[in-house]
Fold these 3 entries.
Entry 1:
Amino acid sequence: MPPPPPPPPLSRRGMLRTAVLAAAASGFSGATAGSSSASSSAPVGPSAATLPAPPTWALHPFALGDVTLGRGVFATKRQFMLDHGRGYDADRLLQVFRANAGLSTRGAVAPGGWEGLDGEANGNLRGHYTGHFLTMLAQSYAGTGDQVYADRISYLTGALTEVRAALRVAPAVLGVAGRFGTAAEHVRGSYRYVDLPAGVLGGAPAITLSAWVKPTHHAAWARVFDFGDDTTRYLYLAARNANGVPRFAVTTGGPAGEQGIDGTGELPLDRWSHLAVTIGGGTGVLYVNGTAVGRRTGMTLDPAVLGPLRNNWLGRSNFPGDPVFAGAFDEFNAWARALTAREIAELQDRRAADASPGRGDLVSYAFDETSGSTVADGSARGLDATVRRTWGGPSHPGFLAAYPETQFITLESMTGSDYTVVWAPYYTAHKILRGLLDAHLHTGDARALDLASGLCDWMYSRLSRLPAATLQRMWGLFSSGEFGGLVEAVCDLHALTGGPEHLALARLFDLDSLIDACAANRDILDGLHANQHIPVLTGLLRLHDATGEARYLAAAKNFWDMVVPTRMYAIGGTSTGEFWRARGSVAGTISATTAESCCAYNMLKLSRLLFFHEPDPKYMEYYERALYNQVLGSKQDTADGEKPLVTYFIGLTPGHVRDYTPKAGTTCCEGTGMESATKYQDSVYFRTADNSALYVNLYSPSTLTWAERGVTVTQTTDYPREQGSTLTIGGAGAFELRLRVPSWAGPDFRVTVNGAPVAGQPRPGAYFTVSRTWRAGDTVRITVPFRLRTEATPDDPTLQALFHGPVNLVARDPATACRRLGFYRNAALSGDLLPTLTPVPGKPLHHTLDGTEFAPFFEGTEDPAHVYFRRDEPRVVFGNTDSGVANPARLDGTTLLDEIWAGAPFRDKDALVARVRSTVDAWRSAGLLGRTDGDTVVRTARNAAYVN
């Protein structure tokens, strides 16, 4: 679809600035924490609250809406995701929430994958994806001003408000069209059943049980009815047994003692079927749609033998592991006699009341109700039934989830991890909370803040009563105890509400074993799940902001250094098979499941937040690497209405092809991928706390509105396809412009203002300051020359990756063996290896070498790629002149050419030849190179021609 029209550039920013000023005056506004007054039709307006920057921050970010992306690689990638956010059916995202609350799902189909009951681990993570989607929509609205995203947020927030309201009260009958009139639907995932009064079977020695059902799922052992005490004494009818056919059974001795009758064919899904069972005179008959499909003689068990039973249920089994019936019930009748085959046949086309058997004399439910929890009994006995949930209901009115509270309850007693039982419920709660907070912050929806506050109030009510030892055990569990970035989100909520219970909640997630080790700079990461722990440290930084506790900050800073660069791949990613290995182990961990995309997302968040506290350029160095490579490259360059097309793992094995539709879909990485693709501009610019300086961290086409200074900064560039950028100042005033000088930048990094060179020497890996009183129209030109260079892995110097400036270049080659490549053959005097490659006309950043094309990693294609290669420089070659001398190596793998070119850049050819001579002399003295070969090497260097 065509891109949305651009927003008016000033009106919306002015609106946001007004909201920010109002928030600064009032502290915060919006719904009171925990209140329930927000209407499901509350209007959406400009943000009435903003997250205040803590006094611990040296630098402050700009709001997403203050930075507008210009044309370039980021805007192109973002547009794919914007289109996805516009078109995806919101009712599908709400399906699992509405089902859990027993509301109509409006015919929507759950997204599937991790967001469906048939997904991995029984869908135990469902609900997380909707939170990610809310954040993506909020960021899309903030970045574009397009009302369609705010409207979608409003719809989702209103629906979630209705879900929470439904969870707060007893479940109500969900009336739908039935076989004859109205039926009661039990949506799959609602965990609903009908609870019948005691004595419903009346102790009858003969009986007929009849029901109209429309099953919507093929799960085995879901009960149409089950009357029993436990798993020993019961009488049941299952819609499907293990063989997929209906089964009736009665027993006083458990499964081994069952007297059963099986059907002969499967019940169709989404169609009405009539089931009936008769017992009389020692004979039992099972009917399906009026036809006897099974008969058992010599039966000795009947309701009279069973006696009074405690549990009398429609749709629920006495076996707790069996599924709840999913589908609809129309009539259910029970007679204290065995109906004849003719009487059963009469029930096929009319209500029982209109047929000769009449209503059941034991009980008769027509399911004509459309509201309330009571199902009326039409028999003379008045045994009205009640719709219930298997799990009861929430322990607190703030509870909001797409599944019952049972996962949270079970986690409290778990001693080992099993994600098929409990899969990171507090992780899912974090995603929902974060999405609601972002919805509130970017659109001002008070309902979203109310839902977020209530959710945290519920968590506090659960966790604050648990012993500290229980909490430590829970958070230490792999996967089951994972809680993602929950602490960061709760701290953000606390900054909005000021509620002391919210700060207290954030501290309940302290994982002391991790915090204490990292604060003491003791590396314990080997064997830990990477993405479970990275966002924990981001939360600790926010706790430091709120409490001033020094160990939180120390832990986060030390942790970052344990990952970067010692466990970092060239593209900026980390983890192999989702876990970390030993410090410094990179080459030894390369596999098809390296670099989980969520890890890069969370490392960027951590790096950004650390930079706010301490503006060390290393954090933005990493940010550039991961953003321009893994994060950009994880998004396929294709639009899709159904999937976000984002990677889970990025395999770094030779010839790996990226998978943009990972696993069964709706994974964590697809969620964070949606977020990443709609906030590319969030770290281009920062400002000092006193607004005296502007940091330009990334070279990216964009326009900044700096409301506090009354200026705009427009950055014009095609970086990284262009080796530089131009900044144009709008407005006037005195402030410092601090420009990041990448660590890989050479001595030719230059800055001019209005065409005149700026005094001073930019230093790679630092920021270069331009201080002046700016006038409207001032132009700053930054020249950032790229060099082609290689980076070796720490544990194998011969395994290397190729970079041109910030961009990782990959060899597009289907071979699954590691490529052996050499680059010194035509290296320039500057040390730039680019002259060895041949540029591809019309394809920026594309080159060839020996017939193989090299392309930017950030291009989201499905081409087989080699990120790493084996460095192979078999002979000494200068300026494409082969000396014929083998390139010797030291025991550590360093070659003669490595040592020569380590002295680059060279001011001229003579300087290079001098370096060659001194290096040859040293190697000859060490017995690593013969005199004749050494002389040949020097002579070749002297005679060769070089690119200057």
Entry 2:
Amino acid sequence: MTAETPPVPPFRDASLPFAKRVDDLLTRLTLDERIAFLHQFAPAVERLGISAFRTGQEALHGVAWMGPATVFPQAVGLGATWNEELVRRIGRAVSSEARAMRARDDRVGLNLWSPTVNLLRHPLWGRNEEGYSEDPALTSALATAYTRGLRGDHPVHWRTAPVLKHWLAHNNETARDTSSSSVRPRVLHEYDLRAFRDTVQAGAVAGVMPAYNLVNGRPNHVSPYLREQLRAWTDQELLVCSDAGAPSNLVDSEHYFDTHEEATAAALLAGVDSFTDHGTDGSLITARVRGALERGLLTEADIDTAVRRQLAVRFRLGEFDPDLGPYAATGEFDTPAHRALAREAAEAAIVLLKNDGLLPLRPGARVAVVGLLADECMLDWYSGTLIHRSTPLEGLYERFGADRVEFAEGVDRVRLRTSSGRYLAVPAADDVPEAARDAEGALDPALITGRTDLPPLTADAVGTELALTDWGEGVLTLRSPDGRFLSVAGDGFLRASADRPGGWVVQETFRLEPAASRGGGHLLKHLGTGGYVHVAADGVKVAGPDVQKAEVFEPEFTRRGEDAVARAAASADVVLVVAGNDPHINGRETEDRTTLRLPPHQERLLAAARSANPATVLALVSAYPYAVDPTGLPALLWTAHGGQAAGTALARVLAGDVSPAGRLPQTWYAGDDDLPDLLDYDVIGGRQTYLYFEGTPLFPFGHGLSYASFAYTDLQVGRAVDALTVTCTVTNTSAVTAEEVVQLYTRAVAPSVRRPRRELAAHRRILLAPGTPTAVTFELPLTVLEFWDVSQGRRRLEPGAYELLVGASSEDIRLGATVELDGEPGTYRPVREHGLDAADFDEQRDTAIVDRTRSSGDAVTPVGGGTGELLYRGCDFGPGVTEVVVEVAGEGVVEISLDGSPPAQRLPPGGGPAAAEVPVGRAGGPYAYRTLTAAFTAAGVHDVRLGLRGPVRLAHVGFSG
């Protein structure tokens, strides 16, 4: 007799729909197994043959953290391409490499935490490099393209499962886990939510990651918008993965909940399905979930809902059908096609900001390439390890010949003399193997430690000449003659051991501080530890924060960088100054910038080059905009850090092999005075981004020049019931084959509320041969002309005139037409029937939106407990009211007036003048709301102005009588 083959369980039956298979598997998992699945590192269930699973694999512009991979330009550089088709192909290449890497290393995940769709609202944000644009339409177009490439084209199986970051209104690293973004309803719906919404609705997104910050006083990890907005946009099961450590932040840093059980339950109920906390150790999260169950804060059904969403992703990725689907085979890795794509992307991302005819460079020109980034191919925190590398210097050598290129880096050369007259010295390190940082990859590169297999620095009579670079704000790196940077490992000793600055906490940066308390000289502070360098018998080490134990140094400069730059520039026909940032220093995750200025060290180098040779080209290679003075500068380019082919791409553009066609994805402001406060998220009231900025930018959104010229003619507008068709002809009027980015903007001519000066509605990047005309047609749904009507709590198309503007940038408009649209007339606010929700204001001054309760609702409070004002237009009191009713918490005064008249009634929370002086302790807390009434007379339609004084929280104003 032969044993019968056991039946295939339904969850293994590929003929069944995924939903039925997920349901079957859920019934087979024990409660403990289901709870364990809630952690980022879900363990294997061997009895069912289920493998371990990890949510999260960084892949912003290539597979990151897991060793060698193709490195594409930074996301902001991809934003500068304005090219969805290109970005889709990059997504396909990245996901293919993720599959290939996973085939040889199962630590590589297929749930990719990319792209970042946070809007580049403020150019000082430390993570500017991670986003695509300040504009929601451009951001969503590129994010949709990337996610489609990551997902693949199969209707059932996914190549990888992309997760959008970081939900929501997240543009500051300063106090990022405790600061609250005050986001008024119009900004929420017209700006911050839009990039997420359009990308999710396109259908290629597996989920989102909430951000560390709070929005309107409530942590994003317990945001009601996850349920009310995100999950309402699609019928697909979306997986919400927490950011690292954020679940614990709800208690530990934000103090939003008293216990971790309450916090974990609240996050799960809000919609978080996978908890990224405590590294690979899931025991703390599972214990919190069990505790929440025991306290009745959660049910098994709540847990099943979250686990179902994770399993839905795993089924789509083919985990339970390993031999089926188009992505079961090993993916492509580092292919010639991927290398060519990396170069194409780097070329497409270069933006020509200014050109007085110096570019392209003439054949045979002698070029001096100078600057701190001239021989660098920089990586950032979310880069993979380079397989191929091309610096600007290498690219110019390759394109023009080494005999035509002169190089000067521009670092200062220095010896550091100790108080005893000796000098810091780098000892010889013989027979020590090379070791590149993160070459093999790490699930958490923040845990990578420095090398201790090299001898520490010493002090001797001669010392070592070090290359000193000042990256701004006094932040220095010091490099030994063999190219290694001085760094500090866990044992505290100073070594020449790092191939480049990097790591979660950079250990390669220092500051020279005047040692006034020690009688002169300088102290060398190690910024990674905060301690001062001290010379001991067993080597040079970090002694700690006590300045009395620190060594006093006197820097002796042997050569200045600007002298070397001037010598190289003087002997060349053209000078290329390559300036910019190191993505790990002064502007990165955990650290915002403080200024738009180029660091003084690099300003000196630029000035030296220009003084020696007026034929100077400035190439900015950076993760963000700078405010530079282009006056008298013949040519200026910008590119983000362009990945492995950056140098080759730059050289080809300089030579004219490729005409530049990148366009700025964000406004370049003329100076710091043009910027709002970093934490001011009101893009409307704060006049932020090209949408509302009323000043003169250094370079506007969408700007970028070409070696060709283009004519725009024959604008035609067609109308349908729910859309407009806009067509124009674009002709290449030059002798150069080149690409042009045709941009369509809209503007409401006479809106009832403040609307954008102009707003990007569509764009197209096209390639045109000399003399070639082409018709460009845009289909424009009327929905893109809608705004969020706070008086009705929904989007509305306002009747009236709208301008349709076609051009080469937001400020270079070539053609225009005006159309009259019927739309839907506005209505007055029916305040007699519905009152006013405090957050639904039209204008505000010095207020912030805060949480009405921990789970839902909004209130408004004066910033810092001072005074603030709210304005509500068009309030209809009907035949009349005789009483005002306010819902308030805290203490202070609420004032109400009509049409700008003096306050009609003051309302001290607590019911009377005496109570207004009684502080409300935390026991009552900010959520202890009271309803107060006062006599108030009004009839007809008026604007209502509310004044708030003191730490009062206003949720609602009603009227009766």
Entry 3:
Amino acid sequence: MAIAAAILMSSPASAIEVQSSCLGAAAVCEGGSTAAFALIAQGRPAILAVDAGDLPGVGRAADDVRADLARLAGGTASPDTTIIAGTLGHNPVIDRLVREGRLDVSGVAGRWEAFVQQVVEHPAPGIERALVIAGADRRGTIFGLYDLSERAGVSPWAWWADVPVPHRPDLYVTAGRRVEAPAVRYRGIFLNDEDPSLKGWVDATYGGFNHRFYAKVFELTLRMKGNFLWPAMWGKAFADDDAESPGLANAYGVVMGTSHHEPMARNQAEWTRYGKGPWDYTQNADVLRGFWRKGIERLGSNEALVTVGMRGDGDKPMTEGSPIQLLEKIVADQRKIIGDVTHLDPARTPQVWAIYKEVQDYYDHGMRVPDDVTLLFSDDNWGDLRRLPELGHTRAGGYGVYYHFDYVGGPRNYKWINTNQVERIWEQMHLAHAYGADQLWIVNVGDLKPMELPIQFFLDYAWNPDAWPVDKLGDYTRQWAAEQFGAVHSAEIAELLTRYTQYNARRKPELLEPTTYSLTDYREAERVADAYEALAAKARVIRAQLPPGYDDAFVELVLYPVEASANLNRLYVTTGLNRLYAAQGRAATNRTAVEVKALFQRDEALTHLYNDEVAHGKWTHMMDQTHIGYTSWRDPKVNIMPKLQTLALPAAGALGVAVEGDARAWPAAPGAPRLSFDRYGAASRYIEVFDRGAGPIRYAISGGAPWLRVSDPEGDVGEQKRLLVLVDWSRAPTGHGEASLTVRGSDGTAVTVAVSADNAAAQVSKDGGEAFVEGDGYVAIEAAHYARAVEAGGVGWGVVPDLGRTVSGVTSFPVTAPSQAPGAGAHLDYAVILTKGGPVAVQVAVAPSLDFRGKGGLRYAVSIDGGAPQVVNLEGDPSKDAWDRSVADNARVLVTRFPTVVAGPHVVRLWRVDPGVVFERVVLDLGGVKPSYLGPPESQRLGAP
């Protein structure tokens, strides 16, 4: 057995802490015991021994782990302790330990990619105690090695995100045995839509997409227990661009494929380079068969998952009305080629058929492929699964899922930055796992770099879904943050990661407009921009507190996405204000124009920080993707400054007045401005006084009523000033009250604002419990704030924390339970109190989930009190426009109308009908809901402590 150790210089000490309690078998911890194995002792790591005759990839991974341990320890390997790693049947020492009954490989032997880590006493002469890592196959061994490294403190992102390796002079592995194996057979990533960012970086760093670049991708994939790759394909051809790349993938142990629309191990770019005639099987079958044959011949003995089928050239649909018989013949001919080349039954070569876009229509209309071919279902390119296997159905090739973190196409490209919630990935892939899609999970990761957190979650969840049930989902991001930055700030960093992805998922940055969020109602736009800025401020504080060695990683993984997202949202909100102010004639119009220009420049500065300053320019071009100024689904060639307005101001000051909830301004607008108050509505409203000229102006407010207060009744306007108006409800007249406030300017302008106040007492809830009360003409409730969650028929409810646009999502479990009759199954009760009677429109916001069972749409039902449930289909409007809105808004808001509901306490009930519906909000509109993106703020809850 060859024993070698590679030593690297250690990185600066870090605050990352490993498990200190030493609980569990084969746990890595800093405290030792008499039965523990010394992984690192007094700054010297154990020797890592592998057999020179082991399978390809094992020795390479061992070299990486030796280097990892040396960096952790800070010293040379000690001859006193030994790690023995190898593959069953390919390592004599391990095989002997198995024969002697000293290494337990139950649950490992013969199990795809399984490994065991076990502390063994006296495994060989001269070795008192060893940690033995044994894999069922070569990737099992590789994963067992990298798993040890990660648990010891080396992040998979050490190179790809510049995460420091901490100094750990003493680490131990507890006694016992630990076994792991994947739940999903093939787990991988797809580098796609890679121009300009990834391409720019690769060209500058490696001179192209060659084997030196892919070596880094292979290692990263394996460190995260992935095993599969679709390579970059925008004008690129993995095997044709560099003949060394395919063999290197096999040497590493990575299974290669070609994307959903690139059959027979050939990239689309190869047809562009070498193809002759049309990409049309009805006209050019012989040429296409020859083209495909060369792809299979080139595979040789390399591990691969071969894509079969055919789409139109350039990832487009085939000719309209392409017959299913033709497509089935294409697959049959492709399989004949595979059999002819390999001289084996084609079923011996793993194959996949991607049921993507229009191909699903062919599948739904009866197209079928042989049973050994994996059926790869897809999402809608926006993270919503279109179809899953019928529950309980199996096939030899199994089922898989093609998912997206990035997309080029309608309603708009999203390529720039991470907008993917871990929580939504969990909810959708939990469905996939539960319904038996466990042969292949592949995710489009775009440029890779901006997607570090969702990539690792996707692969971790594919490896072991049972490790992350919904009640532990909140722990994942905290643990991930601790792995990158240490335990001290992990909770704060996790909150930043969770919140910025939730905010970005509300509406992807490329879809933002100056009026996305309401500028006049619910203070929505300013609340959104302020929430982003609060994250950015917190990120800056944490950055200053982290040791300097973590700065590059923190900028890449946290600070840049948070700061850049906050800046972009502020840019669009300020652009919206600029245009609103111009229409109102405010002098502040000119200042907001200057602010937008500064925010645009700030975006450029942040891009420069990432591309040119972080890690001494290591990631040049990686943030080149444009993201400002979309006018169609395509990204603009360069970021485009929004159109701004400026005003030529008169020299003298002039008073203007605007009120909350109205885009108009006075004295120019017709009619009188009005502020309406409700005892259970917004706590305050505002009047904004502003200057319409260049000179100074003062204001004073008169009138009002004893129950009405103004925060600053007189003073200098300056450029503009917001005055809060509040009602003292203890002094307000019972029922309805009216008053007026007159705003006078030193220029002689006078504007009278009408004020009304509804002071109706709410009737208490029937059961005396908590209830949300109507205010301002609506009741708004977060779905997670139900009064009761009622189980029925073995179906219950669970909250998916942070899922959705506002607070959390609520969905039914188990997700495999059959549909229930409306009004007879599990339900959620929401206690409400209406202060006025009349017609009610119940708006239910749900995640934009699709009919993954193919049964005509996902349904729920709504009832009030004991009334008959009204059934709602999430895809009741099947139009493309409706789908465009749902993915752009990242929600569907569905309305159920009840013509007459009397004042008083009521129970709104959401009935579970079909699995997979995720509730996010419930809003009862009694005529008061104003236009906004996220909906009105949550209502007051009476009876709450």
